[in-house]
Q: What sequence folds into this?
């Protein structure tokens, strides 16, 4: 069963999933502050056709695009992101830490990110991100509010987004709230990967590239699930993963990969 056509598209059976060989990770996180509108634009300029982003909730329940639990690394804020209201988050600078050229770049709301990505004509992998140790209720609420907003805003002419999460409760809630396909995020492939994916109705597994082996990749592909690997910033590594049958890779530096012969 072949899923990758001549154009590199992905066609698993029974769903409309079609993702490319290269997905910009948090936009183009190697050359722009991650998960910002500037980062998504850079990914597009580097030839990426899809981007991945991380969505969490502000203290007042607004979906915002941010990776870490804490604000310190990628903004001038302090403490947990989820403890701040949208108004407080709006005051933060999420660009200066990366470089002066990005000073004033804000933490986008999911609505702003979706509008930008759609205007760029790109595809979207929406990762529902939870703080470490978050309970199922928090995962469900984050997925519910993020999906409500994203599905209302996503234009019909663009490819159907792919929802992903490390948190099973987020994926289960996503299944109840939308028809968008889902991918299960894993740091390494567990023995029961097939059952986990099936239980959650996932169409893809997204696995850390550093933990993945050729035989695992083969087994996942044989199962009919799509396989994506994160985070891949070196061309030779991407080529090897594609040879193993990995359908697509998340990259901080999509421009290094989109020009490769098999991309
Ligand atoms: O979705 C792929 C990748 O982003 C998962 O890990 O920590 O970068 O969100 P992380
Ligand atoms: Mg992510």
A:
């Amino acid at each position: 069963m072949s899923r990758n056509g001549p154009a590199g598209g992905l066609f698993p059976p029974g769903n409309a999933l079609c993702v490319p060989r290269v997905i910009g990770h948090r936009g183009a996180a190697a050359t722009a502050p991650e998960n910002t509108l500037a980062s998504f634009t850079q990914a597009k300029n580097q030839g990426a056709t899809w981007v991945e982003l991380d969505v969490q909730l502000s203290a007042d329940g607004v979906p915002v695009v941010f990776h870490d639990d804490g604000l310190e690394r990628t903004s001038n804020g302090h403490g947990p992101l989820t403890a701040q209201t949208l108004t407080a988050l709006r005051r933060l600078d999420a660009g200066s830490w990366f470089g002066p050229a990005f000073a004033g770049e804000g933490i986008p709301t999911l609505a702003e990110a979706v509008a930008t990505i759609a205007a760029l004509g790109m595809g979207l992998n929406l990762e529902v991100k939870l703080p470490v140790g978050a309970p199922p209720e928090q995962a469900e609420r984050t997925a519910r509010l993020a999906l409500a907003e994203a599905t209302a805003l996503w234009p019909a002419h663009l490819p159907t987004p792919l929802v992903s999460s490390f948190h099973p409760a987020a994926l289960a809630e996503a299944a109840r709230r939308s028809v968008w396909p889902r991918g299960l995020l894993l740091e390494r492939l567990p023995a029961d990967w097939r059952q986990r994916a099936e239980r959650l109705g996932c169409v893809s597994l997204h696995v850390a590239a550093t933990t993945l082996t050729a035989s695992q990749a083969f087994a996942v592909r044989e199962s009919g699930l799509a396989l994506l690997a994160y985070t891949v910033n070196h061309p030779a590594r991407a080529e090897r993963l594609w040879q193993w049958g990995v359908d697509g890779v998340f990259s901080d530096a999509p421009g290094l990969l989109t020009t490769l012969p098999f991309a």
